[in-house]
Write a structure and sequence with these properties.
With about 230 residues, the chain is α+β, with helices and mostly antiparallel strands. The protein folds into two domains: about 80 residues, no CATH class; about 100 residues, no CATH class. The chain contains eight helices and six strands. The strands form three sheets. Strands 1-2 form a two-stranded antiparallel ribbon. Helix 2 runs antiparallel to helix 3. The two termini are about 25 Å apart.
């Protein structure tokens, strides 16, 4: 794309990232990239399905948005505020609220399933169901959305552990996590980050850690130098 964009290919799914600090140049770059893609498809006897093509613009909450018009063969690909990318539901300000809503519905079904099969299975079997149908969904892509302000919704759903062990509705889950050897959402988030750093340490030449104390808070910042 002549350095104007970053293409992302996964199976038959094609996405392109474009960034620019100037709104006018940003719009021009998008149109240039879009026409380049369209020409490539045409030259290779392929067609770009505009009914399945859209664009999403990521901005901060308080930033004024400028109108973007993309023209391709006299057709305008629609803009969207929400899109699904490799199993993650992302929105414009990247608050992850839509993805957490999606997770809530899927995990609710799993909780209902565990509740119904509880009388017929042992605790070890119920743990297998939890890991295969609850944990696998909860932990997917957690490095991206795990620090969202709305993750408490998913953490509360981990109270399904009470159903697994037959605990009361008001019983604390703190000891249940230890007893069942299951990580809490926040612990799984931290573990996923640590595993990512370890598995990609060849690309991280230097990592500088420092801690800044703020009244009532503790912040840990990680700088990655390539």
């Amino acid at each position: 794309m002549n350095g104007k964009s970053i293409p992302i290919l996964f199976a038959d799914d094609t996405s392109t990232l474009v960034t620019h600090s100037n709104p006018v140049e940003f719009c021009n770059t998008i149109n240039t990239v879009f026409h380049t893609l369209s020409d490539w498809f045409r030259n290779n006897l392929l067609s770009l399905n505009l009914t399945k093509t859209h664009f999403i613009r990521f901005v901060t909450k308080h930033k004024n948005q400028t109108e973007i018009n993309i023209n391709c063969d006299n057709k305008l690909p629609p803009a969207t505020n929400i899109t699904k990318f490799l199993g993650l539901t992302v929105n414009c300000p990247l608050t992850w609220t839509n993805h957490i809503d999606f997770l809530t519905k899927k995990l609710s079904n799993t909780c209902y399933l565990i509740h119904n099969i509880k009388p017929f299975l042992s605790i070890s079997a119920l743990k297998m169901v939890y890991h295969s149908l609850f944990h696998s969904i909860m932990s997917y892509g957690i490095m991206f959305w795990g620090n969202s302000a709305h993750t408490h919704i998913i953490f509360k759903m981990q109270r399904v552990l009470r159903i697994i062990v037959g605990a009361g509705y008001r019983d604390s889950c703190r000891e249940l996590f230890k007893e069942l050897k299951i990580l809490t959402l926040s612990s799984q988030y931290i573990l996923s980050l640590l595993l990512f750093v370890i598995q990609n340490r060849g690309f991280l030449h230097r990592i500088v850690h420092f801690t800044t104390l703020i009244p009532g808070k503790r912040m840990i910042c990680i700088y990655k130098c390539h």
